[in-house]
Structure formats: C-alpha cells, structure tokens
Amino acid sequence: MRLYSLSVLYKGDPKVHLLKAAYDVSTFNFFQRSSVQEFMTFTSQLIVERSELGSRASVKEQEYLCHVYVRNDGLAGVVIADNEYPQRVCFTLLDKVLDEFSRQVSKIDWPSGSPATISYAALDGYLSKYQVWPPQD
C-alpha cells in the first residue's frame, strides 16, 4: 500500500491550478521521477477540472487510483495511491488537509496562488505519516 501524491488545487473559472503538492516518487527509477511527478500533477488537475463542485470520486488512471474531493468553495484535494490503499482513508486525509489548508491560507489567495506563493508546509508530513496504513505515531 502506497501513497504517491497529495495535492491541493483551486477549481477556478476558467481553469484549475495547483496551490501546493507533495510527492513520493522514491520507488521509481531516478530517470523516471520527474516525468512521473509531471504526470501526477497533470492528472490531478485534469480530474479536478472534470469534477463537479461538492463531489468526491475515485478514478483509475493506469495502475493508480486517484481520489478527488472538490469542495463547494472550489478548494480541491487529490490523493494518488496504489490500488490497495483504502479509499476511506484517502477521503479522510483529504477532508483533514482541506480543512486545515482553508484555515491557514486565506481564501483571497486561492485564485492567484501557486506552489511558490502559498505557504503551507504540512503536505509532506501528511504524505509520509499516511504512507503506511495504519499510520505510525
């Protein structure tokens, strides 16, 4: 069971953009890592773009399962995991991350934010904490 990516995005009008993301590409060949990370970023944006506000979904993409949650306010989260990782846990993680993100990052910054301008450092910690299920405290 493995998590590969945890992303926070904003579903704006007309397009979706990435606010912050964490990746674990350590299991991939060194030369594949950047293209795998690009694939995960692109896939996350595409899935959010195709999802309705207020929806949750799990989408199979190649050998991965992409779990997406788009809130009514346009804030969205995507977890990319392997097929064995429990779906319920992914959605619990997305709830937790999006709630915390919305408390720490002003809503005014969402439409114009980018990974370079948004300061929210918790994603890497969540990705490593939830890497093994159940999490090791």
Short overview:
The chain is of the alpha+beta class and 137 residues long.
What would you note in describing this structure?
The chain is of the alpha+beta class and 137 residues long. The chain has one domain: Beta-Lactamase. The chain has helices at residues 33-49, 87-104, 122-129, and strands spanning 3-11, 16-23, 55-61, 64-70, 75-82. A hairpin with a 4-residue loop joins β4 and β5. The longest helix has 18 residues, at 87-104. It is globular and about 40 Å long. The two termini are 18 Å apart. 30% of the residues are buried.
Write the layout of secondary structure elements.
Layout: E1 3-11, E2 16-23, H1 33-49, E3 55-61, E4 64-70, E5 75-82, H2 87-104, H3 122-129
Antiparallel strand pairs: 1-2, 1-5, 3-4, 4-5
Tags for this entry?
137 residues, alpha+beta, Beta-Lactamase, five-stranded antiparallel beta sheet
Largest sheet: 5 strands, antiparallel
Strand content: 25-35%
Cα gyration radius (Å): 14 Å
CATH superfamily placement: Longin domain
- What's the CATH architecture? 2-Layer Sandwich
Number of helices: 3
Question: How would you spell out the order of helices and strands?
Answer: EEHEEEHH
Percent in helix: 25-40%
Q: In total, how many beta strands?
A: 5
The N- and C-terminal alpha carbons lie at a distance of 18 Å
Instruction: Give the CATH topology.
Output: Beta-Lactamase
Overall mean pLDDT stands at 93
Subcellular location: Endomembrane system
GO molecular function: SNAP receptor activity
Membrane topology: Lipid-anchor
Domain Longin: 8-127
